C-alpha cells in the first residue's frame, strides 16, 4: 500500500503548527487544556460570577462551604469568598454573611480593596442592602459610604462605564423610582442617577392567558463594548424605551445619557423556541476585545427550522438595520449558559454534549457534531470548534460563568470536575494562558509561487506561476498514488486533500517531500467516543455530509475559515466553514456561485483577490476576480495547450503554502 493510501487517524490534533508558547499572550493563544491547581474547592451550590480585585479573586454564588486548595477542611462561606490566585488558599478575613438566596454578580469596586456585589439578598453582615452592596475585600465588611436605594428585585449583572455603575436585572423600581431592568448608580455613594434609565418591557413568549412559562422581565446580562461607546443588553423583553427590541438591544453610552441605539436591532431572537419551558432563552453576551462583534449564548430547547435556540451567535457591532447573525453555532438542543471572547477564540460553556451540530439535531449527534462536553472554544470567524477541549464531565446544569483575565479563563459551574472526571475542581476552575497552544497565522500561498499538479497519469510536477506566465515542469517526489485524490489545498506546511473513500486526509509538504498521510476525523475522538454522556448515549460525533461528497470532488481551496469545493457534474461552487487546526468541517453547505463552468472545473487556488481555476475538458488555466468570498467577473486564460503548450487537465492542483 502506498504512503498516500496508508493513514493513521488524526483526532482533534491541530492541523496548523501549534506549540506551547514561551510566554502567555491572550492575543495569540488559547488557554491551556489543563486547569491550574491554584483554585479552592467549593463544596455545594453554584458559582455565578468571578472577578479579580487587586491581588485576590472574588467569587459569588449560592454556595455555603469551601475548602482551600490542598485542604479537606470545609470552611463556611456564605455566597461569597475570596482566594489567593497563586495558591488557591481561601482568604480567612473575607467572610461576609449574606442574607438571601444568591450573589449573582461581582465587580471590582472604585478602589483595589473593594468589590461590588449584587444578587438576591436583603442584608450583608446585618446591614440592610437590597440586592446591591460594596464590600471591603480586606475585611468583608460593608463599605458604609456606598448606600444605594432599595432595589425591588434581583440584580443579575454589573458593569462600569463613563463614571457610572451600571446594573441589570429583574427590578422595576429603585428607591421608588421607576427603573425597568436597567439602572445606573454613583460608584462612590451608591446614589441612583439618571444616566441609564432605558426601560425594558414585555415578555418575550408569555402573554396573558397563555399556557407557557412566565419569567421575570428585565436584563439577564449586560456587557460594555471595550471602547466604552456602547452597552449590549440581553434578557426577557420585547422593547427598550418603547422601541421594538426582542431579547437584545444595544445602548449608546453618551457623555451625559445612555440611549437606545436606533440603528442596530435584530429579529434573530423573535422566534419562540420552547415556549412551554422558557419565557426568554438568551443567557449571556460578550464583546470581542476589539469591540467589532458580540456573541450571544442561548438555551431554549429545540425549536425547529429557523430558530436559534441552544446556540452561540455572532453579530457585528458596526452593522445597521435588522442585523443578521454572522454565524450561528448549534449544540443540538443543549443549553449554553456563558460566553467569553478572546482575540483568538470564543469560549462557550453550558451543558452541551457536542458543538458543530446540525440545526435539525435534537439531542443527538447530527452531521458535523464533535464531542465538546460542557465547554468549548470556537473559531471567531465561523463558529467552528477549535481543537481545544478542556471538557466538563459530568456536565451538570452547566458552566454559569466564563470570565477571561489577562492570565487565563475562570469557569464557574455547579459541578466538580474538568476533563473526564480527571481534575477535581469544585465549582470553580481556572485554565491559564501559560502552556496553551499558540494560534499560528494561516498562509495558503501566494504568487509568484509554485503550483503542483498530479493525477492518474504520473508523478506530481511543479510549475512556477507569477500570474501571467508559467515556468517549465519540474518533477517532484510523488509520495504515493495520486489517482484517488479528490481536490487539495495547503495551509502553511500542511496539504489537505479528499480521497475516493470519502475521507479527508492531511500530510505535511515542504515543496520537495511529503510527510505521512493521516485521516482527519475529529468526530470519533477516542477519548470521548465511548464515554456515556449521562443522557442516554455516548459523546461520539458524526462526520458531516461533506465526507460523503469527497469521492465526487474535483477541486478545493481554503481561505479565511471557508473550504470551497466543486463536485463532478454540478454547476455550483460550494463552501463550508472549516478550521484547519481542529479539522472540523461544518455540516451546512453554502453556494458561493452557480454557473455551468463549475461542472467542468478542476483544481483551484487563490492569490489574494484573484481566483485561478483549471478546466478538466480543455486543459486551460483561467483567472478571475475574487471578491467578498466569491468569484466575480469574466475568465481570462492564463495558460493551456493552445496558449503555451501546457495542459492543466489533471486530477489535483494546489498552490504551495508559505
Secondary structure elements and pairings:
Layout: E1 8-10, E2 41-42, E3 47-53, E4 56-61, E5 65-67, E6 75-76, E7 80-83, E8 98-108, E9 114-124, E10 127-128, E11 132-136, E12 155-161, E13 164-169, E14 173-174, E15 177-178, E16 182-185, E17 192-193, E18 200-201, E19 218-224, E20 230-236, E21 239-240, E22 243-244, E23 248-253, E24 258-260, E25 264-265, E26 282-287, E27 293-298, E28 311-316, E29 321-322, E30 327-330, E31 336-341, E32 346-350, E33 354-355, E34 370-371, E35 375-378, E36 392-393, E37 399-404, E38 408-413, E39 417-420, E40 423-424, E41 428-432, E42 449-455, E43 458-465, E44 474-475, E45 485-491, E46 494-499, E47 504-508, E48 518-520, H1 546-549, E49 553-559, E50 562-567, E51 572-579, E52 584-585, E53 590-594, E54 601-607, E55 610-615, E56 621-627, E57 630-639, E58 652-655
Parallel strand pairs: 1-48, 25-29, 36-39
Antiparallel strand pairs: 2-5, 3-4, 4-7, 5-6, 8-9, 9-10, 9-11, 12-13, 13-16, 14-15, 16-17, 18-21, 19-20, 20-23, 21-22, 23-24, 26-27, 27-28, 28-30, 31-32, 32-35, 33-34, 37-38, 38-41, 39-40, 42-43, 42-58, 43-44, 45-46, 46-47, 47-48, 49-50, 50-51, 51-52, 51-53, 54-55, 55-56, 56-57
**Helical segment count:** 1
> Span from first to last CA?
30 Å
Tell me the structural class. Answer: mainly beta
Unreliable runs: 1-23
Tell me the name of the CATH class of one domain: Mainly Beta
Mean pLDDT: 94
**CATH topology title of one domain:** Hemopexin
Instruction: Bin the strand percentage.
Output: 35-45%
Helicity, in percent?
A: under 10%
User: How large is the radius of gyration?
Assistant: 27 Å
Shape: elongated
Q: What's the count of strands?
A: 58
Tell me the strand order in the biggest sheet.
1-48-47-46-45
Amino acid at each position: 500500500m502506498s504512503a498516500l493510501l496508508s493513514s493513521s487517524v488524526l483526532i482533534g490534533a491541530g492541523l496548523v503548527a501549534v506549540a506551547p508558547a514561551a510566554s502567555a499572550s491572550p492575543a495569540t493563544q488559547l488557554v491551556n487544556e489543563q486547569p491550574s491547581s491554584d483554585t479552592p474547592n467549593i463544596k455545594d451550590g453554584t458559582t455565578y460570577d468571578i472577578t479579580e480585585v487587586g491581588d485576590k479573586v472574588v467569587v459569588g454564588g449560592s454556595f455555603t462551604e469551601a475548602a482551600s486548595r490542598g485542604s479537606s477542611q470545609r470552611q463556611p462561606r456564605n455566597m461569597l469568598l475570596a482566594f489567593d490566585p497563586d495558591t488557591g488558599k481561601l482568604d480567612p478575613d473575607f467572610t461576609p454573611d449574606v442574607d438571601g438566596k444568591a450573589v449573582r454578580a461581582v465587580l471590582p469596586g472604585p478602589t483595589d480593596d473593594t468589590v461590588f456585589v449584587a444578587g438576591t439578598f436583603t442584608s450583608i453582615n446585618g446591614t440592610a442592602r437590597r440586592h446591591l452592596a460594596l464590600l471591603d475585600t480586606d475585611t468583608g465588611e460593608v463599605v458604609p459610604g456606598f448606600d444605594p436605594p432599595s432595589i425591588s428585585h434581583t440584580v443579575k449583572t454589573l458593569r462600569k462605564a463613563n463614571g457610572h455603575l451600571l446594573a441589570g436585572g429583574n427590578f422595576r423600581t429603585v428607591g421608588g423610582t421607576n427603573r425597568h431592568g436597567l439602572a445606573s448608580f454613583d460608584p462612590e455613594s451608591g446614589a441612583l442617577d439618571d444616566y441609564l434609565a432605558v426601560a425594558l418591557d414585555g415578555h418575550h413568549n408569555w402573554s396573558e392567558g397563555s399556557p407557557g412559562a412566565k419569567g421575570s422581565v428585565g436584563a439577564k446580562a449586560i456587557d460594555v463594548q471595550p471602547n466604552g461607546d456602547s452597552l449590549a443588553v440581553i434578557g426577557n423583553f420585547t422593547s427598550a424605551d418603547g422601541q421594538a427590541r426582542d431579547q437584545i438591544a444595544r445602548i449608546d453610552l453618551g457623555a451625559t445619557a445612555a440611549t437606545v441605539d436606533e440603528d442596530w436591532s435584530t429579529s434573530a431572537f423573535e422566534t419562540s423556541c420552547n415556549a412551554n419551558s422558557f419565557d426568554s432563552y438568551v443567557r449571556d453576551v460578550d464583546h470581542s476585545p476589539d469591540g467589532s462583534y458580540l456573541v450571544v449564548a442561548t438555551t431554549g430547547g429545540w425549536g425547529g427550522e429557523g430558530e436559534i435556540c441552544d446556540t452561540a451567535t455572532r453579530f457585528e457591532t458596526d452593522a445597521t438595520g435588522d442585523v443578521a447573525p454572522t454565524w450561528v453555532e448549534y449544540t443540538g438542543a443543549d443549553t449554553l449558559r456563558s460566553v467569553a471572547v478572546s482575540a483568538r477564540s470564543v469560549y462557550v460553556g453550558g451543558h452541551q454534549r457536542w458543538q458543530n451540530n446540525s440545526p435539525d439535531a435534537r439531542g443527538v449527534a447530527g452531521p458535523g457534531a464533535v464531542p465538546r462536553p460542557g465547554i468549548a472554544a470556537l473559531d471567531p470567524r465561523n463558529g467552528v470548534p477549535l481543537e481545544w477541549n478542556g471538557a466538563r464531565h459530568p456536565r451538570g446544569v452547566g458552566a454559569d460563568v466564563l470570565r477571561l483575565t489577562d492570565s487565563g479563563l475562570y469557569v464557574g459551574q455547579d459541578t466538580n470536575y474538568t476533563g473526564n472526571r480527571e481534575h477535581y475542581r469544585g465549582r470553580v476552575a481556572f485554565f491559564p494562558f501559560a502552556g496553551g497552544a499558540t494560534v499560528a497565522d494561516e498562509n495558503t500561498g501566494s504568487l509568484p509561487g509554485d503550483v503542483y499538479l498530479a493525477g492518474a497519469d504520473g508523478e506530481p510536477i511543479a510549475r512556477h506561476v507569477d500570474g501571467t506566465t508559467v515556468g517549465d515542469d519540474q518533477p517532484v517526489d510523488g509520495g504515493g498514488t495520486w489517482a484517488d485524490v479528490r481536490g487539495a489545498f495547503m495551509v502553511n506546511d500542511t496539504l489537505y486533500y479528499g480521497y475516493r473513500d470519502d475521507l479527508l486526509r492531511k500530510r505535511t509538504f515542504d515543496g520537495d517531500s511529503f510527510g505521512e498521510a493521516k485521516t482527519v476525523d475529529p468526530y470519533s475522538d477516542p477519548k470521548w467516543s465511548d464515554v456515556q454522556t449521562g443522557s442516554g448515549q455516548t459523546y461520539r460525533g458524526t462526520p458531516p455530509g461533506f465526507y460523503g461528497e469527497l469521492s465526487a470532488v474535483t477541486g478545493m481551496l481554503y481561505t479565511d475559515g471557508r473550504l470551497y469545493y466543486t463536485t463532478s457534474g454540478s454547476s455550483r461552487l460550494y463552501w463550508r466553514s472549516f478550521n484547519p487546526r481542529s479539522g472540523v468541517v461544518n455540516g451546512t453547505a453554502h453556494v458561493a456561485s452557480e454557473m455551468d463552468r463549475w461542472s467542468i472545473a478542476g483544481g483551484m487556488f487563490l492569490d489574494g483577490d484573484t481566483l485561478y481555476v483549471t478546466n478538466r475538458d480543455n486543459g486551460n488555466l483561467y483567472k478571475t476576480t475574487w471578491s467578498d468570498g466569491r468569484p466575480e467577473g469574466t475568465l481570462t486564460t492564463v495558460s493551456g495547450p493552445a496558449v503555451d503548450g501546457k495542459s492543466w487537465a489533471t486530477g489535483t492542483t494546489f498552490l504551495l503554502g508559505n
